[in-house]
Amino acid sequence: MLATLEKRGYKVTAVIDVSGEFSVVRGDEVNLVTFCKGRLMAYSYSVPSGIRGFIRRVTQLTAQLGPGDFASMSSETSVGELNSLSVTWTTQPDQLSVSYFAPAERSSESVSVMHLDLAHSVCRTQPQ
């Protein structure tokens, strides 16, 4: 799969210290893919949007999937204070999360979407 992405013009780079995780970049498009035992386990991508786009996406997914689990976070990171809101829907064996990251000192606001195959999430806690 990684070779196919490279053929399509993506730059694929292994994430340091995270086995099976790769950043996949083409232009301004940044994605993260995670493999476990050769199988795609998770992928996430950023969407060009701000808080309005986050609210529209959450409203649309709530209409399709029902209410999700809400979480908020505030912490200090290497790019300054990080404040985020996220909503997660779990429909076995999949999990879908939409997160909004507020602007910080050295980063702009962003929205990301993550899909996770829960059937293979055991790989996160066991050596590959």
Task: Give an overview of the whole structure.
By secondary structure, the protein is an alpha+beta fold. The chain has one domain (2-124). Helix content is 16%, strand content 50%. The protein has 2 helices and 8 strands. Strands 1-2-3-4-8-7-6-5 form an 8-stranded antiparallel beta sheet. Strand 2 (21-26) and strand 3 (29-36) form a beta hairpin. It is globular and about 35 Å long. The two termini are 18 Å apart. The mean pLDDT is 81.
**Lateral strand order in the biggest sheet:** 1-2-3-4-8-7-6-5
- Radius of gyration, in Å, reads 16 Å
Number of self-contained structural domains: 1
Task: Categorize the overall geometry.
Answer: globular
Write down the oligomeric state: single chain
- How does the helix and strand content classify structurally? alpha+beta
Features:
alpha+beta, 128 residues
Brief digest:
The chain is of the alpha+beta class.
Write the layout of secondary structure elements.
Layout: H1 2-7, E1 11-14, E2 21-26, E3 29-36, E4 39-47, H2 51-65, E5 69-77, E6 80-91, E7 94-101, E8 110-117
Antiparallel strand pairs: 1-2, 2-3, 3-4, 4-8, 5-6, 6-7, 7-8
